[in-house]
Specification:
Shape: elongated
Strand content: 5-15%
Number of helices: 11
Number of domains: 3
Oligomer: single chain
Radius of gyration: 29 Å
Distance between the termini: 105 Å
Largest sheet: 2 strands, antiparallel
Number of strands: 6
Structural class: mainly alpha
Order of helices and strands: HEHHEHEHEHHHHHEEH
Length: 330
Amino acid sequence: MDNIRNRASIFFAGSALAVILGFTFFMNPPANAIPDVVAIRAGEGIREVGRVLHERRLIRSRAAFSLYAIISGSAHQLKPGSYRFEGNLGIPATIRQLVEGPAEAEVLIVEGDTLKDVETKLVARALISPGALTSVSVDELRGEYPFLGNAAAFEGFLFPDTYRVTAGAHGITVLRKFLDNFRAKVAPHTKDIEQGTLYRDLIIASLIEREVPGAEDRRLVSGIMKRRLAIGMPLQVDATVSYAKCAGAFQGCPPLTRADFSLKSVFNTYVVRGLPPAPIANPGLDSIVAARSPRISSYLYYLSDPATGKTVFAETLEQHNENRARYLKR
């Protein structure tokens, strides 16, 4: 009888140990787990969430996932949203992340970034997928944001600032963040913003943003640009050549060569008179205000001193050529 009891005890102990070891095995992350962004929809239960995570190879067992969630009291505390799972968390850490909710990251968009630059920055942080911003049509949001006017793209409307972005967010959701902030920051300085009449000045503001650093100099350059436009003189803005050369991205764009200034593009203001058809960057408030409030002067030319960043002005072509020889060595 004692032998039977001993054998039974050993059997149950062995079985318990096997269950514990098996459960522990399934609690660990799969060997082939890889980082992934997973969207958990509102109303999805523990079984649906476990199925999604198992299909993405982020957990070993749906049953172990559900069992641990129930035992830990977390089954009804999982929050919907987009999550960035690093692929080596295991079930306990994965459930903790789902209970805490989707993580947000701070992203700084600086003055002069382009739409493609912004998208590249967000993709590099694994916050959005490639094409998430550039694939959204303006027509999808024009009704909500009348200030978009007749714009064909969102270039120029991604107001430079610090944003909090949830990993895996849809492109249209991120764009709404930018556009809401654009409205909040620009409207106090532009009373007619909702009439859709800002676009021309926004194009000028984008040129100023890429060309001139100082606020007062920006107003002078704004006056020069508007004077040139009035007399039919080419704007000859170097930044438009870079924008054309590198297909709308300044990050990683190589320095301009002499041949680049003859590049055939509607954005190249050396070969096409008038304004480009769209902004070439996302300007900050200083540049937008400068475009709306130009300072009229006798100047027709300007350049930036590479050594100091100072803007040097000239009234005549002869003076401008002298400045080019002095500051640019050309």
